[in-house]
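Render this sequence as a predicted structure.
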Amino acid sequence: MSLIDGVVGGSLILATLLVGLRRTHLKLTEDHLNQQLGSPKWNYSESWASTFTLGAGVVGTLLSSSGVVPASTSYLPNAAYGALHVLFLVVAGAAPLIYVASQTADSSGVPHGVVRWFLVATAVTLWAAWGQLATLGFLIAELLLEGTLSLRTAILWLIVVGLPAILMGVYSWKGIKWRINRQEALRARGGDLLPWSIL
């Protein structure tokens, strides 16, 4: 298995594990998984996993295409850096589309999805975020090996990459419950389903 496979597959496995463990922890039954949710929306203040993925992807893509990546690399092939950044940007964009594509309309024509597809979209969002951060981490390591970055600067960059990866896991763990509980509370009061912020 190549390191590229490790970045792509490893981030997918971690994302799937977190969402699967959260589903188990919340004891979501088939009835829970089929409960309705509103439509997804992007909100800068609440969708920070997606926002951070976009930002890291843009930074990584710019670094990869601007000649900053050394011609001879140690971790991933030179061209893989740009390709992985673009791949994870596309994956991040696909996450809400997966949920939207699964939606059906109720009798009044209002679209809604279900918790099951919300969990899938969450796992895809995390996959993109963690894959993007892993790729950026390897890029920083390449620049350190080449001598482009000092050790202090590289450590700072790795903290800037690593800390958000951990915080995304924590936020997603909590955010899954918040979004499901909010919709359940609305249903219990007989209110309309509201849009929920993508992670």
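Summary. The first strand starts at residue 36 and ends at 37. The chain has a mean pLDDT of 86.
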